[in-house]
Design goal:
- The complex is a heterotrimer of chains A (439), B (125) and C (487).
- Chain A is of the alpha/beta class.
- Helix content of chain A is 38%, strand content 17%.
- A seven-stranded mixed sheet of chain A has the order 2-10-9-8-7-3-4, sandwiched between helices. In chain A, strands 13-14-17-16 form a four-stranded antiparallel sheet, covered by helices on one side.
- Chain B is α+β, with helices and mostly antiparallel strands and 125 residues long.
- Chain B has one domain: Beta Barrel (OB fold (Dihydrolipoamide Acetyltransferase, E2P)), CATH 2.40.50.
- Chain B is built from four helices and nine strands; from the N terminus they run E-E-E-H-E-E-E-E-E-H-H-E-H.
- Chain B has a six-stranded antiparallel sheet.
- Chain C has 487 residues and is of the alpha/beta class.
- Chain C folds into three domains: 55 residues, no CATH class; 256 residues, Type I PLP-dependent aspartate aminotransferase-like (Major domain) (Aspartate Aminotransferase, domain 2), CATH 3.40.640; 124 residues, Aspartate Aminotransferase, domain 1.
- In chain C, 34% of the residues lie in helices and 10% in strands.
- Classes of the chains: A alpha/beta (439), B alpha+beta (125), C alpha/beta (487).
Chain lengths: 439, 125, 487
C-alpha cells in the first residue's frame, strides 16, 4: 500500500468477506481475461516526497526564468501574495461544482462576486461563472451568436483579433458548421469598409472585434455597433479585462457580448495555464449564454444565499439542444480574479494600467530613438505595441535570453511586438534596449 | 388536473383552439403540472413560420426543460408577451395563458388532433 | 461554520486600498496619447478594501464550503479522491510559474519534458499511441476527441459520416459535445442493467455513422462485458469508438481502454489523477488516440528530437487548435506528481481498491436502499432511493440529511434510468473507518425516514443556510451586486 491508499491487509479481508468474494481479482471476473492488463507499466517506481521534490527541481532548472517583454496573450503582471494564500484554502480547491448549495456557499458567493466584477468591468449586465480561456470563450461567443440568430449562420471575425484566438474560433466553427469570414485589416486596424460590405450579405449572425488588437492597437469602433445591429446581428468584443478599468468598455461600444482572457488579472504565466476565460452579455442574450451562472436568492429562513441558476439551459439538462457542452470551467481562477480585483479596486487597476502604459511608451520612445526601430502603424496603444526593425529578431531574442530577458514576439516581416507591465522597471527597460543593440 | 372539452390536443401536450384561420396554442394543465414551477418560456418571434409536429419553443422549470411542438402549421401572428415577465401564469391557468397565435395554412390539420376524451386517455397512461 | 453573508462590495470604504505598486518614475504620460473617445467614461464600482479585509472575507467564505479535505465526498461519477498536497507545492514552483508560454522552447526544456513525460505516462497507462494534453476539461476533451473522429473520416474522403451513437443513459455532456462538434446524435437503448443493447445497436450502424461514444464501466458502474463485440460491430461498419474517461478510475491499474478496442479517449486529470476540482475547475482533459489518428491531434504538439531536445510543432493535418497555448499546464504538473508518487506499483492498486470500496458500501447498505442491479459493480453503483417507499422520503431528502451529518451527498437523480437515483462513488483513498461511518449514517437516515419522516423531509436542518428558493432565483435572476443593490 502507499500513502494515498489506506487499506491494510486486515481491512481488505473484512471488506472482501462482506462482499462475499475471495480476492480483489474476483471483483474483475466479469471483465474478459484478454483485456486485463498483466504487464508492467513503463513509468518509474514510486517516489518519496524527497525524490519528487528533487525531480521537479531538476526539471525546473532546465527552464530559464526571464524578465518578460512579450505578451501575445500572456502578460507578466504583478500577483499579490495574498491570492496564493487564499487560493490554497482547501475548502475552496478540494470542492466540486457547487451542486449542494447549502454546503457550497463559499464557492457560490465568490462566483457571484466574480460575476459582479466582470459586469462592472465590461459594463454588461450578465456574466457567467467562467470559461476555459480567452480563445475558447471567443469561439463560444461565435456559436452563441449563431444560436441567437436562429437562421443565420455566418460570423465575421476581424483579422486584427489575436491569431491564436482566431485559430481556435476557426477550429470550433469549422466543426460546428458555422461560416466564418475573416474581415481584412488595413493599417493595423479592422477594415471597417470591408466589414460593412460583408454585413450587406444578409446572412451575418455576429461580428467579433478585438480591444486591444493583435498589434496592441486600441481600435476606434465608432458606429460599428449600429451598423451590426441594423442587420440584426450581434457584436462580440474580445478584450482584456484589466485594461477595461481605463479603456472604453464593450458596453460603451454597444457590444452585446464581451469575452476574452482574464490572465491579465495578476495570474501567473505558468507556461500557458490555467488562465481564465470570461464571458459577459447583455440581458437580452442571457438565455443563450453558455456556462454556469450564480444568482442570489433566500433560504427557507429568509437568509440571503446564492445558488446555481438558469440550469435548464445547460448540457446536463438540454443535452444536444444546449448552446454549449461546457461543464467544468476555471472556477478557482475566477476566485483568483475576484481576490485580485478586490485587492486592487478601481484605483489599483487604474494604476496598473498607467504604470504599464507609461513603461510601454517609455520603451517605445527609446526603441525609436535607437534608429533601429521604426513606426509601422502610429496608432494608440496601452501596454503592447508593434514596431518594425532591421535587426535580426531571432538572433536578438536569443542573445536577450542568454542575458535573462524575453524579447518581443517575432510577427515576421521585421515586425516585433513588445509588452510592458507594471513589473518592469526603468532600469530593466534601459538595459533591455542596450542589450538589443549589442546583439 | 383539468382538460377542456372544446379544445384539440397534441400528444406532446399542447392545446389548440381554432377561430377562423387563427389558432391559439398553449400547453395543457397536465404538462404544467408535470413540469412544476415554470421559470421561463422560450417563445417564437412574430413572423416566424411554424410547422405541425416541429419545435417552436421551450418551457423551462428549475431543473427541466421541455420542447414545445407546434400542433399546426402557419405563421406566428402574436405571442403572449405577459409570459416574458410572468412565466408562472401558465402554472396558474394553462388554458387562459396561451403561448402563441398562428395564422394556419391548413385548418384541417386541427381535425387530425386529439379530442378531449382521447387526450385524457393519453394522460392516464 | 459561522453564518457570514457579507459581499466584498459591502465592506467597501472610500479611500481604503489593499495594494502597493512600484513608484512610477517613467516621466512619460502614455495614456495622454490615447484619444479620449477610446477611454472609459462609465463609473467603476469596485470594492475599496484593505488587505486584511480581503484575507478575512475570503477565509470566512472558505468556511462556508465543504471540500474533500472537510469530509467524505461520495459524489458519483466525479471521483472525489484525496488531492495530495505535494502536488500543490510543486505546481507552484517559480521555475514553472514564471514561464511564458511563448518563450523559446530552448529556455523551457523542463516544462516541455514534463509535458512529454506525462503524455507518455498517460499513453502507457491507457494503452494509446499518443496523448494531447491541451484540452481544458472533460467536456473539452470529448469535443476534441470527436473533432479527431471527424478529421479522420474527412481525410479519407468519407463526408457522409455525420452521426454519432450515444447511449440513452449517457451523461448530458456526451450529446452536447457531439452537437458542438457538428454531429447528429442517435441514441442507442440501454438494457435494464445500463449496458448497451446490442440488438438495438446493430440496425443503427451504417455508412453515415462516425462512431460511438461510450464509457466503460457504464453509468451504473457495471462493466460492459460485450465490449469486444461492440467494438467489432462499430469498426466493421467503418466507425470509431470513443471512450469517455470519466469512469477510468476503476480500471486504472487493471484494464487499458486502448486494449478494449477504443480508438480515442479523454481522461479527466481532475478525477482519475487526483488534481483538485477547484470548485468547478480548472481541470484538464487530455485526449489519447490510436496510432492512425495521431496526426489529427490538435496543435501545438510537444515533440522530442533524436538528441533528446524537446520542441513544439504545429502539424498540417492537425484538426486545428482548441487552446490558446498548451492547456492547463499547472494542472498537468499535479497529475504528473501524482503518477510519480504512486509509481508503477502503486498505480496498480488504484482501480482494485476503488472497486473494493464501492462494493463494500453497496453490500452494506442494500438492506435499506433499493439496489436495482445486483452483482459486482466497479468504482460506483446506483441505488434507486430507499427500499421502503411508503415513508415518502425521497432521494433528495436523504441527500440533504447527509449534509446535516457532515457528509457530502452522492450524485442524485442521475442516471435517469431510475426515478430516485443515488449514485455513490467512494474512491480508493477512503479508509474502512470512513466508509463504516458513512454506512452507519445512511442506516440512521433510513431509520429516521421510517420513524420521523418529516424531519428528514425538512433537511438540512443544521447547515449554515437551509433549503434555497431556486424557483425565484431562476424566474427573476439577480446575477450581480448592482442588481442586488437595486432591489
Amino acid at each position: 500500500m502507499n500513502r494515498y491508499i489506506p487499506h491494510t491487509e486486515e481491512d481488505i479481508k473484512v471488506m472482501l468477506e462482506k462482499i462475499g468474494v475471495n480476492s480483489t481479482d474476483d471483483l474483475f471476473s466479469d471483465i474478459p481475461e484478454e483485456v486485463i492488463f498483466k504487464g508492467e507499466y513503463d513509468i518509474p517506481s514510486a517516489m518519496s516526497e524527497v525524490e519528487l521534490r528533487k525531480h521537479f527541481q531538476e526539471l525546473g532548472d532546465k527552464n530559464t526564468r526571464l524578465k518578460v517583454f512579450a505578451g501575445g496573450g500572456a502578460y507578466d503582471h504583478y500577483s499579490p501574495s495574498v491570492i496564493g494564500h487564499l487560493l490554497s484554502r482547501s475548502e475552496f480547491y478540494t470542492a466540486y461544482t457547487p451542486y449542494q448549495p447549502e454546503i457550497s456557499q463559499g464557492t457560490l458567493q465568490y462566483i457571484f462576486e466574480y460575476q459582479s466584477m466582470i459586469c462592472e468591468l465590461t459594463g454588461l449586465e450578465a456574466s457567467n461563472a467562467s470559461m476555459y480561456d480567452g480563445a475558447t470563450a471567443t469561439a463560444e461567443a461565435a456559436m452563441m451568436m449563431v444560436a441567437s440568430a436562429k437562421k443565420k449562420n455566418r460570423v465575421l471575425v476581424s483579422a486584427t483579433v489575436a491569431p491564436r484566438v482566431v485559430e481556435v474560433v476557426n477550429t470550433y466553427t469549422k466543426f460546428h458548421g458555422v461560416d466564418l469570414t475573416i474581415v481584412p485589416e488595413k493599417d493595423g486596424v479592422t477594415d471597417l469598409e470591408a466589414l460593412y460590405a460583408a454585413l450587406e450579405g444578409g446572412d451575418v449572425a455576429g461580428v467579433i472585434v478585438p480591444c486591444p488588437n493583435k498589434y496592441g492597437i486600441i481600435e476606434d469602433f465608432t458606429g460599428v455597433a449600429d451598423k451590426v445591429h441594423a442587420v440584426k446581428a450581434l457584436l462580440a468584443m474580445n478584450c482584456d479585462p484589466s485594461t477595461l478599468a481605463v479603456l472604453r468598455t464593450p458596453a460603451e461600444w454597444g457590444a452585446d457580448i464581451a469575452c476574452g482572457d482574464g490572465q491579465t488579472l495578476g495570474m501567473p504565466l505558468q507556461f500557458g495555464g490555467p488562465y481564465l476565460g470570461f464571458m459577459a452579455c447583455s440581458k437580452a442574450q442571457l438565455r443563450k449564454m453558455p456556462g454556469r451562472v450564480v444568482g442570489a436568492t433566500k433560504d427557507a429562513d429568509g437568509k440571503r444565499a446564492f445558488v446555481l441558476t438558469l440550469q435548464a439551459r445547460e448540457q446536463h439538462i438540454r443535452r444536444e439542444k444546449a448552446t454549449s457542452n461546457i461543464c467544468s470551467n476555471q472556477s478557482l481562477m475566477a476566485l483568483y480574479a475576484t481576490v485580485y480585483v478586490a485587492l486592487m479596486g478601481k484605483k489599483g487597476l487604474e494604476e496598473v494600467n498607467k504604470l504599464s502604459c507609461d513603461g510601454a511608451h517609455y520603451l517605445y520612445n527609446k526603441l525609436l530613438a535607437t534608429g533601429k526601430f521604426h513606426k509601422v502603424f502610429d496608432k494608440p496603444f496601452l501596454k503592447e505595441f508593434t514596431l518594425h526593425t532591421d535587426l535580426d529578431v531571432k538572433k536578438v531574442n536569443e542573445y536577450l535570453a542568454s542575458k535573462g530577458y524575453m524579447g518581443g514576439i517575432d510577427l515576421g516581416d521585421g515586425l516585433v511586438e513588445f509588452a510592458v507591465t507594471e513589473k518592469r522597471t526603468k532600469e530593466e527597460i534601459d538595459e533591455f534596449v542596450t542589450l538589443m543593440l549589442e546583439a | 388536473m383539468t382538460i377542456k372539452e372544446n379544445l384539440r390536443y397534441a400528444e406532446s401536450h399542447e392545446w389548440v383552439s381554432l377561430d377562423g384561420e387563427i389558432a391559439t396554442v398553449g400547453i395543457t394543465d397536465y404538462a404544467q403540472h408535470a413540469l412544476g414551477d415554470i421559470v421561463y418560456v422560450d417563445m417564437p418571434e412574430v413572423g416566424d413560420e411554424v410547422t405541425a409536429g416541429e419545435e417552436f419553443g421551450a418551457v423551462e422549470s428549475v431543473k427541466a426543460a421541455s420542447d414545445l411542438y407546434s400542433p399546426v402549421s402557419g405563421e406566428v401572428v402574436e405571442i403572449n408577451e405577459a409570459l416574458e415577465d410572468e412565466p408562472g401564469l401558465i402554472n396558474q391557468d394553462a388554458f387562459a395563458n396561451w403561448i402563441m397565435k398562428v395564422k394556419v395554412s391548413d385548418p384541417s390539420e386541427v381535425e387530425g388532433l386529439l379530442d378531449a376524451e382521447a387526450y385524457a386517455k393519453i394522460c392516464e397512461e | 461554520m459561522k453564518y457570514y453573508d457579507k459581499l466584498i462590495f459591502e465592506l467597501s470604504r472610500p479611500g481604503r486600498v489593499g495594494y502597493e505598486l512600484p513608484k512610477n518614475d517613467f516621466a512619460t504620460e502614455g495614456e495622454k496619447e490615447i484619444p479620449s473617445d477610446l477611454l472609459r467614461k462609465s463609473p467603476l464600482d469596485l470594492p475599496e478594501v484593505s488587505e486584511l479585509d480581503v484575507v478575512r472575507h475570503y477565509t470566512n467564505l472558505s468556511n462556508k464550503n465543504f471540500g474533500v479535505d472537510t469530509g467524505f465526498y461520495p459524489l458519483g461519477s466525479c471521483t472525489m479522491k484525496y488531492n495530495p498536497k505535494i502536488n500543490e507545492e510543486v505546481a507552484a514552483m517559480p521555475q514553472f510559474a514564471e514561464l511564458h508560454p511563448l518563450q523559446n522552447p530552448e529556455t523551457a526544456q523542463g516544462a516541455l519534458e514534463l509535458y512529454w513525460n506525462l503524455q507518455n505516462a498517460l499513453a502507457n497507462l491507457a494503452g494509446f499511441e499518443e496523448f494531447t494534453l491541451n484540452p481544458y476539461a472533460g467536456a473539452h476533451g470529448e469535443l476534441t476527441g470527436l473533432m479527431v473522429m471527424r478529421s479522420y473520416h474527412k481525410a479519407r474522403g468519407d463526408h457522409k459520416r455525420t452521426k454519432i451513437i450515444v447511449p440513452d443513459s449517457a451523461h448530458g455532456t456526451n450529446p452536447a459535445s457531439a452537437m458542438v462538434a457538428g454531429l447528429e446524435v442517435v441514441e442507442v437503448k440501454s438494457r435494464p442493467n445500463g449496458s448497451i443493447d446490442i440488438e438495438d445497436l446493430k440496425p443503427l450502424l451504417n455508412d453515415e455513422v462516425a462512431g460511438i461514444m461510450m464509457t466503460n464501466p457504464n453509468t451504473l458502474g457495471m462493466f460492459e462485458t460485450e465490449i469486444a463485440e461492440i467494438a467489432k460491430l462499430v469498426h466493421d461498419a467503418g466507425g470509431l469508438l470513443y471512450y469517455d474517461g470519466a469512469n477510468f478510475n476503476p480500471l486504472l491499474g487493471k484494464v487499458r481502454p486502448g486494449d478494449m478496442g477504443f480508438d480515442i479517449m479523454h481522461i479527466n486529470l481532475h478525477k482519475t489523477f487526483s488534481t483538485p476540482h477547484g470548485g468547478g475547475g480548472p481541470g484538464s482533459g487530455p485526449v489519447g488516440v490510436a496510432k492512425h489518428l495521431v496526426k489529427f491531434l490538435p496543435n501545438p504538439h510537444v515533440k522530442k528530437d533524436e538528441n533528446g531536445k524537446f520542441y513544439v510543432e504545429n502539424g498540417d493535418e492537425a484538426l486545428g487548435s482548441v487552446s490558446t497555448f498548451f492547456g492547463n499546464f499547472g494542472v498537468m504538473m499535479k497529475a504528473y506528481a501524482y503518477i510519480l508518487s504512486l509509481g508503477k506499483e502503486g498505480i496498480k492498486e488504484v482501480g482494485p481498491m476503488a472497486t473494493l470500496n464501492a462494493n463494500y458500501i453497496k453490500e452494506s447498505l442494500k438492506d435499506d436502499y433499493l439496489l436495482p442491479i445486483e452483482g459486482v459493480c466497479k468504482h460506483e453503483f446506483v441505488f434507486d432511493g430507499l427500499k421502503d417507499k411508503s415513508t415518502g422520503v425521497t432521494t433528495l431528502n436523504v441527500a440533504k440529511r447527509l449534509l446535516d451529518y457532515g457528509f457530502h451527498a452522492p450524485t442524485i437523480y442521475f442516471p435517469l434510468l431510475f426515478h430516485e437515483s443515488m449514485m455513490i462513488e467512494p474512491t480508493e483513498t477512503e479508509s474502512l473507518e470512513t466508509l463504516d461511518e458513512f454506512i452507519d449514517v445512511m442506516h440512521k437516515v433510513a431509520k429516521e425516514a421510517r420513524e420521523t419522516p418529516d424531519e428528514v423531509k425538512n433537511a438540512p436542518l443544521t447547515t449554515i443556510v437551509r433549503k434555497l428558493d431556486e424557483t425565484t432565483a431562476a424566474k427573476n435572476p439577480i446575477l450581480n451586486y448592482k442588481a442586488l443593490k437595486n432591489l
